[in-house]
Amino acid sequence: MTKRLRLPTIMAFLLSVMIMISACSGGTGNSGANGAGSASTSSKQETSSGTNAGSGNDNSDPEPVKLSIAWWGSQTRHDYTQKLLDLYTELNPHVTFEATPSGWDGYFDKLSAQAAGGKLPDIIQMDYQYIATFSNNDLLADLQPFVDNQTLDLGRVDENIVGSGRVNGELTGIAISSTAMAVTYNPDVFANAGVEAPIPEWTWEQFIDAMTRIADNTGKLGTESLIDTQTFSYWVRQHGQHLFKEDGSALGYEDDAIMVEFINMVKSLQDNKSMPTPDERAQYESRGKEAMPVVTGDAGVRFDWANFTVITAGSNPNLKLVTPPLKGGGENGLWIKPGMFFSVAESSNHKEEAVKFINWFINSKEANDIIAAERGIPVSSEIRDYLKTSLTPQQQDMFDYLNVALQYSSPIDPPEPSGFAEVSKEFIDAVNKVMYEQISPEEAAQNFRKVANQILERNAN
Is the pTM of this model over 0.70? Predict the structure, then answer.
């Protein structure tokens, strides 16, 4: 039965998603988009790897289908994804695409506006932070029936990764990669500052010392910033707590001292000029990942996901990965997460064809020769083994990093609850007010708790 979204629900959803997208830490890139992509055609019908590309098994000519698809990323991602779409059309001449790529900033604004009009793309690149919000508003299709009838082959994907796309018992997201939070560092900046390169066992105290020495010795930034909910979630997990309760109805940690300690650390880094002010950060965040200070040599480190060095290899091939700092006596704060999902809109009239494309994306060697692990480590064990014979240094570092990160990881939290975008905005606003000395860290922590719990309670009902 077709699911229908009530107007009050969609308006609350729009407010939640559109209020704050820049708080997220995933996939920032150049916002330049390719045009809508009607791909070329040819007579090929099947990938060289033997994976059916989705053309169907009957002898009749399939009806022409145009699939709309949206994703975020850098210009590099836009370019190679268009090549993928063109190749898929060569393999399946009845399928063409209407592509709407963009940068991370504004991506979910566009999706929420399309959702309001009942015009979501057929295929949606989806993030772990937002899959619960979209799923809870009945915007994403349950793809389990396509797994059951073998249209979608997940046999070589770990069940934990598959399960990360389940919301309320429905498989609304197909993980297409896995990743973990990482610190990307610029070895040249560390060397010029006379600071030893970081190692996985470094502590927050050592991190602060290194960032301060980089600023003092070179005049460059130590770290680009720490003010985002993903980094704070890592901090909270190191205290043995969680940012949100499991049911998403409130914050998951009880002691405001956890946030106060975090703010004090961040404020000390800004005060010693090793971290930019919020206004300074806003200026360079609009440039895209390839022009971030750590890439250009104007900062020592950046907190991001493990595929950052793959994304930026064309601009700086010398960047390295290391695990985030440890808290002495603390818990393992890292987690392995789906890098991103492909979801199919519940409103799509071409669900089966959309799923066939996703299946090809995950399982085809030809497709993954083009993707080259830019979206993160492939979820298919067969594709991982295949790519290991031809990895670039950056890709090899990413693969190796995930093995290290596992040693400092604990189970992933549930997807961010409905209302997360509002909560993220409140968190950043609260911390920024301390950065500008408008309120104390204690006031910021108290205010954040009060407003965040109100938002989460409202969205949980």
Answer: yes
